[in-house]
Automatic annotation (TrEMBL):
EC number: 6.3.2.1
One GO MF term attached to the UniProt entry: ATP binding
Positions contributing to (R)-pantoate binding: Q67, Q164
UniProt GO cellular component terms: cytosol
Protein name: Pantothenate synthetase
Note in the entry: The reaction proceeds by a bi uni uni bi ping pong mechanism.
Subcellular location: Cytoplasm
Keyword set includes Cell wall biogenesis/degradation: no
Catalytic activity: (R)-pantoate + beta-alanine + ATP = (R)-pantothenate + AMP + diphosphate + H(+)
Source taxonomy: Bacteria, Bacillati, Actinomycetota, Actinomycetes, Micrococcales
Active-site residue numbers: H43 (proton donor)
Protein purpose: Catalyzes the condensation of pantoate with beta-alanine in an ATP-dependent reaction via a pantoyl-adenylate intermediate.
Amino acid sequence: MKSPAAKSPQVLTTRAELRAAIRAAAPASLGFVPTMGALHSGHEQLFRQAREENELVVISIFVNELQFNDQQDYQRYPRDLQADVQVAARAGVDLVFAPAPQEVYHAGTPLIRLDSGALGRMYEGASRPGHFDGMLAVVAKLLHYADPGQGHYRAYFGQKDAQQLVLVRRMVADLDYPVQIRAVPIVRTAQGLALSSRNALLSQRQASAALVIHRAIELIAGRAARHEPLYLEDAVGLFQMEPEVELDYFVVVDPDTLQELAFNCQDTPFTGQGLILVAATVGGVRLIDNQPI
Ligand SMILES: Nc1ncnc2c1ncn2[C@@H]1O[C@H](COP(=O)(O)OP(=O)(O)OP(=O)(O)O)[C@@H](O)[C@H]1O
Ligand SMILES: CC(C)(CO)[C@@H](O)C(=O)[O-]
Ligand code: BAL
């Protein structure tokens, strides 16, 4: 039997329209999901969780130039608003905010900047200088735009972008934003590749080579679960066998602070808690992944 057509969300392009639509709805709770579009089942999971937990669901689709240190990466970032609206409809989203750059940066490039601090300069921040400052700049604005001003306000972020999640939580705490940050687990392909909009830029061969990321994570997570020594160099060795995949970092960090865990001795069995963080590029496409252990 054909399922009933999903109700199309309202698509809004100005801050004034968004504010008016949220005011008119006067929701008891609002779930907000910021995205850069090219929506996939990972995003859909965020929308569905927001749908379950809130009366009104608002998403934004905005490719934020300020968080790209590489113009080529910005230019080739996949964009397809029509397809995105269909994904949003399927997940029961009410409002899609899809502004033009001049609507968000209406006063030009911001003079007053947010500094993501030392954590913002590690891992992803080390390879993408300025990325997290630019990300926080837009998240700070978007969280204002979608603020219902009354009732519960929740914003949803994927665990896939673990460092982003920690920094957003920290910004919201440091600047007293009246919003609860909710984390959503990573959605993967059946083979284990974390879904990402950038996966669309991979050839089939590259996508299959990229599975080494998951294999390496599984190897170390298995050892951690058995309380064995981790021997991270074995994970690095797996990458050396995939010449198309260039490893940037493979580290085990504290899940809350993201500070790298020191292993006193190579042969020490792993106990306690950590988070594996990985980044690699495949054919120039940057992929990240992580897993708690
Ligand atoms: N596979 C996934 N599982 C869970 N959340 C995800 C997944 N992919 C993206 N998200 C989350 O969706 C939100 C929007 O992410 P974004 O639009 O940048 O998509 P993306 O697929 O992460 O893109 P890219 O990896 O190319 O930057 C972020 O909070 C991100 O963590
Ligand atoms: C949070 C975000 C939408 C800000 O541009 C982006 O960094 C993302 O999609 O993860
Ligand atoms: N999902 C993180 C956004 C970015 O790569 O710029």
